[in-house]
TrEMBL record:
Chain segments annotated as coiled-coil in the UniProt record: none
InterPro entries, per the entry: Cyt_P450, Cyt_P450_CS, Cyt_P450_E_grp-I, Cyt_P450_sf, Insect_CytP450_Detox
Gene Ontology CC terms, in alphabetical order: endoplasmic reticulum membrane
Family: Belongs to the cytochrome P450 family.
Lineage: Eukaryota, Metazoa, Ecdysozoa, Arthropoda, Hexapoda
Signal peptide as annotated in the record: none
Protein name, UniProt field: Cytochrome P450
PROSITE patterns for the chain: CYTOCHROME_P450 (PS00086)
Major localisation: endoplasmic reticulum
Chain sites annotated for binding heme: 132
Pfam families: p450
Entry keywords, A to Z: Endoplasmic reticulum, Heme, Iron, Membrane, Metal-binding, Microsome, Monooxygenase, Oxidoreductase
């Protein structure tokens, strides 16, 4: 949620578009942010997915080879029992799969564009049979938190907000080096 709020603060047009959609959704659902109401805000899902693309929780996936495998088109052989690591951060910021990967662009995850993302290039919750069991709960909690904040506050960068996010190199997870300092002002209704 911190990274999403950072990107919304740095991209006020995206923040305002989200706020408008959330307010319209609240009006349609008698002022209640129900599960169904939250699921109907597609732009929020796009923002959350784009945030996870730029800032996956884990920088890599690790798997153990269950059988010897030759990488097609190479002489590389992975023996059974070898640990294999895949860089999620590297793939999800590769311009071959995500043009202008440093740019925050929720439209990458619109219904029209999502199908253009090659399989296994967006794996913020893992992939395959070992995909995170908490994926749906994680999305729900994150989207609910962002929705409540954006409905009630405008998020702005402050003097100490970094122009470019840098990561803490001493952390197992992808965490910001200097935190995510932001300024919040209440939305007047």
């Amino acid at each position: 949620m911190s990274y999403a709020l950072y990107e919304l603060a740095m991209n006020e047009d995206i923040q305002e578009q989200l706020r408008t959609q959330l307010q319209e959704t609240m009006e349609k659902h008698d002022g209640k942010l129900t599960y169904q109401a939250l699921q109907s805000v597609n732009y929020l899902d796009m923002i959350f997915s784009e945030t996870l693309r730029k800032y996956p929780v884990y920088p890599f996936l690790d798997r153990t080879c269950t059988k010897t495998y030759r990488v097609p088109g190479t002489d590389i052989v992975l023996d059974k029992g070898v640990f294999a690591f895949t860089s999620i951060l590297g793939i999800q910021r590769d311009p071959q799969y995500f043009p202008e990967p440093e740019r925050f662009d929720p439209e990458r995850f619109s219904d029209a564009n999502r199908r253009n993302i090659p399989s296994c290039c967006f794996m913020s919750f893992g992939e395959g049979p070992h995909k995170c069991l908490g994926l749906r709960l994680g999305y729900l909690q994150g989207k609910l938190g962002i929705a409540h904040i954006i409905l009630n506050y405008r998020v702005h960068p402050c003097a100490s907000t970094p122009k470019k996010m840098e990561f803490n190199l001493h952390s197992f997870l992808i965490t910001p080096r200097d935190g995510v300092p932001l300024k919040f002002t209440r939305v007047t209704k």
